[in-house]
Amino acid sequence: MDIIWSCKAFNTLTPRELYSILQLRNEVFVIEQNCAYQDCDDKDQHSYHFMGWKQNKLVAYTRLIPPGIAYQEMSIGRVVTSPSIRRTKIGKELMVRSIEKLYELFGKMPVRIGAQLYLKSFYESLGFIKSSDVYLEDGIKHIIMICN
Question: Cα(110)–Cα(23) distance, rounded to whole angstroms?
Answer without folding.
Answer: 30
